[in-house]
TrEMBL record:
Renumbered residue ranges of the record's region Disordered: 239-267
SMART domains with a match to the protein in the record: WD40 (SM00320)
GO biological process: cytoskeleton organization; regulation of cell shape; regulation of transcription by RNA polymerase II
UniProt keyword annotation of Zinc present: no
Gene3D superfamilies reported for this sequence: YVTN repeat-like/Quinoprotein amine dehydrogenase
Pfam family, one: WD40
InterPro entries on file: Bromo_WD_repeat, WD40/YVTN_repeat-like_dom_sf, WD40_repeat_CS, WD40_repeat_dom_sf, WD40_rpt
WD repeats: 1-39, 40-82
Lineage of source species: Eukaryota, Metazoa, Chordata, Craniata, Vertebrata
Record's keyword terms, sorted: Repeat, WD repeat
Residues passing through the membrane, by range: none
Domain of life of the native organism: Eukaryota
Protein name, entry field: BRWD1 protein
Length: 267
């Protein structure tokens, strides 16, 4: 097999370069002289994740399709910590990406089974209040294109970025309780009745009919007694300011000819 470099990363102070090779070895090089310093042995499949520690130049993280996550001391060429991503009943999960937190005390990984793995110091109690399965109900909704080639949500015929904030559901599409729905940006201050999604029956690809979230309750901001959307208010304020500028200076309006030219300026 012809060796090929699959990933490359500099350490924090640029004194070392680490390369991942398709023979499953990691190689540590002196970045000034090009001298090979260490061969790091441990991975059993290709490595596509190399992450330097944000402030410790000795530390490098690697992860790969074999499910292994290693913390290396690249100055000594030794393993410091090792984790194997074994999933009960499904074998190992390939690790696709890893990132350190800015303070270097934690790192997070994502794997081929849709899991988010968080490593760090201290207890895991802050994370125990979060359900094991968390998806937006719109994550796998089909999209279409309109006559102008713009992308729309197939069901609501709206541009995805103009739709109300999505609901949190489990892997089967069942909505989580209202206390979790408030974790979605834009739903922090909603009343309980506005956190209950509309349910319906949807046919799956194998013909089975299941109950899922099919829509969202939207709030008519003009109705008295209902809490207005902060985002809608900002949009209205920006539009009002633009209208006021247009009234004060008609030549500054989008589409008005500039300096006598016949071609309007784009807004």
């Amino acid at each position: 097999m012809k060796p090929k470099v699959t990933m490359i990363a500099w350490n924090q102070n640029d004194n070392y370069v680490v390369t991942a090779v398709n023979n499953h070895l990691l190689k540590v090089w002196n970045s000034c002289t090009g001298q090979l310093l260490h061969d790091l042995v441990g991975h059993a499949d290709e490595v596509f994740v190399l992450e330097p520690h944000p402030f410790d130049p000795r530390v490098m993280l690697s992860a790969g399709h074999d499910g292994n996550v290693f913390i290396w001391d690249i100055t000594k060429g030794t393993k410091t910590k090792h984790y194997f991503n074994m999933i009960e009943g499904q074998g190992h999960g390939a690790v696709f990406d890893c990132k350190f937190s800015p303070d270097g005390q934690h790192f997070a990984c994502t794997d081929s089974h849709g899991h988010l793995l968080i490593f760090g110091f201290g207890c895991s109690r802050p994370y125990e209040k979060i359900p094991d399965q968390m998806f937006f109900h719109t994550d796998y909704r089909p999209l279409i294109r309109d006559s102008n080639n713009y992308v729309l949500d197939e069901q609501t015929q709206q541009a995805p970025h103009l739709m109300p904030p999505p609901f949190l559901v489990d892997v089967d599409g069942n909505p989580h309780p209202t206390k979790y729905q408030r974790l979605v940006p834009g739903r922090e201050n909603c009343a309980d009745e506005h956190l209950i999604p509309q349910l319906g029956y949807v046919a799956t690809s194998d013909g089975e009919v299941v109950e899922q979230v099919i829509g969202q309750q939207t709030v008519d901001q003009e109705e008295p007694g209902l809490e207005p959307s902060i985002l809608d208010g900002m949009i209205r304020q920006l539009q009002l300011e633009q209208d006021q500028r247009t009234a004060a200076d008609p030549e500054a309006a989008p589409g008005a000819p500039q300096n006598g030219e016949g071609t309007p300026r784009r807004g």
